[in-house]
Amino acid sequence: MRGFVFNAQPARVVFGAGALERLGEEVERLGAKRALVLSTPEQRASAQEIAARLGPHAAGIYDKAVMHVPLETAEAARAEAARLAADCCVAIGGGSTIGLGKAIALTSELPIVAIPTTFAGSEMTPIYGVTAQGQKKTGRDPRVLPKAVIYDPQLLLTLPARIAGPSGMNAIAHCVEALYAQDANPITSLMAEEGIRALASSLPTVVRESANLEARGEALYGAWLAGACLGQVGMALHHKLCHTLGGTFNLPHAETHTAILPHATAYNLDAAPEAMTRIARALGSIDPAGALFDLARAIGAPVALKDLGMPRDRLERAARLATENPYYNPRPVDYEAILALLTAAYHGERPIATRRRAA
Ligand code: NAD
Predict the structure, then answer these.
(1) Which atom of ligand 1 is nearest to the CA of 166?
(2) Which of 146, 205, 301, 336 could form a disulfide with 258 if both were Cys (CB 3.0 to 4.6 A apart)?
(3) Which residue out of 61, 96, 169 has the highest number of ligand 1 atoms within 8 Å of its CB and is therefore the one to mutate?
(4) Alpha carbon distance 89, 29 (integer Å)
(5) Which atom of ligand 1 is closest in space to residue 43's alpha carbon?
(6) Quick one: average pLDDT of 94-98?
(7) pLDDT confidence band for 250 (50 / 70 / 90)
(8) What is the CA radius of gyration of the chain?
(9) Is pLDDT above 50 for 159?
């Protein structure tokens, strides 16, 4: 067996329907008495419910989280935490809200209790991002890793199908890339394969039956594993392309992951045979790239960049940006091939299985 390094991220996880009941206990474990509750404006009602649960241990609510953590929002939230003398943050929401908690933790070291309500996975990673002057700067810092994560599938019951589907594909992307990451290791790979299986098997029911708690719980379990993979190993071409498209062309995060993933998988098909065998097994198909495309279609998620606001005449620029400072990738990143990949994703074409049989 090849040698490896395994870097566990020391987050505490409380999982299950009704797990939110344990919130008070989790805040108490941190020794905190003045929690600042974070949410997006749309999830203010959830933030109010959290504050009510915390009673005297809630110092206030900051409900202005938005996608990609603009610097002004981060600074306003930091000022509010300082004004209220908060000693912890409770973030209820998706990656945007948890990202805001991380921006506060980065400069104040306030511990975070994360209560994820999407499948994005940010709660399991020490990765933060703040956007200033149209540029998102990301980094890794152990101070931003939430101290406790409460996964309660009941909170996912309000997640509309149009957000749930792409969010689940975003989580699958973390697992796919973890399997062929430069620092892939057997433990993370176990989690990645199981994450793909759990998500792919549950997402069709998640989007079809909004009240199916069992399916939402299974997908949330997969999303936890996916977030853990993202936190443990580096990512590759797929994440590079999505960061480029999201950052430079302001495309929506989870939907961009959905449109790119089948094509990034097809791109790496021959270069990462062991990973592809595991992805295929988890999807129950011999054609992993095609199966990811079919899954996205089956759950009604967008598969064409042109439907996400990508300008046709900027594909060359995107291909150039993605190839200038590439992340590690099992197959060398080549401008012409990336342009072809982006063009296929732009039109929403089903990737063609090109895996060569071993001689
Ligand atoms: P999001 O947090 O922006 O949420 C999307 C919308 O869904 C918001 O309006 C939100 O209020 C709403 N919503 C969330 N949960 C809901 C629920 N249960 N019911 C009803 N509405 C709900 O979207 P996201 O995809 O979770 O996060 C995307 C952001 O997270 C991006 O900025 C991305 O870069 C970041 N991210 C970071 C990491 C990391 O490790 N740092 C990982 C994944 C994503």
Answers:
(1) 25
(2) 301
(3) 96
(4) 14
(5) 11
(6) 98
(7) confident
(8) 20
(9) yes
**How many Å apart are CA 110 and CA 35, to the nearest integer?**
10
- Amino acid type, 352: I
**164-347, CATH topology level:** Dehydroquinate synthase-like, alpha domain (1.20.1090)
Q: Which residues, judged by CB distance below 6 Å to any ligand atom, belong to the binding site of ligand 1? A: 40, 42-43, 67-68, 93-97, 99, 117-118, 120-122, 125, 127, 129, 155-156, 158-159, 163, 167, 230, 253-254
Q: Which of 247, 158, 150, 140 is nearest to 206 (CA)?
A: 158
Backbone dihedral angles phi then psi of residue 86, each to the nearest 5 degrees:
-65, 145
Closest C-alpha to 225, from 67, 101, 116? 116
Q: Provide the residue count of the chain.
A: 359
* Residue 200, token pair as written in the block: 């792919």
- Looking up tokens 């919130």, which residue turns up? 23
Query: Which residue among 117, 224, 232, 241 has the greatest number of ligand 1 atoms within 8 angstroms of its CB, and so is best to mutate?
Result: 117
The CATH number of 12-156 is which of 3.40.190.290, 2.60.40.10, 3.40.50.1970, 3.30.450.20?
A: 3.40.50.1970
In testing the pocket of ligand 1, which one of 43, 61, 115 has its CB within 8 Å of the most ligand atoms?
43
The residue assigned the tokens 């009510």 is 52
Residue 3 is predicted with a pLDDT of: 92
Q: Report the alpha-carbon distance of residue 283 to residue 200 in Å, rounded.
A: 7
pLDDT for 118-134, tens place per residue? 999 999 999 999 998 87
Domain boundaries of the chain, sorted by first residue: 12-156, 164-347
Query: Is the pTM higher than 0.70?
Result: yes
**301-319 pLDDT tens trace:** 999 999 999 999 999 999 9
**C-beta atoms surrounding 353 within 10 Å:** 14
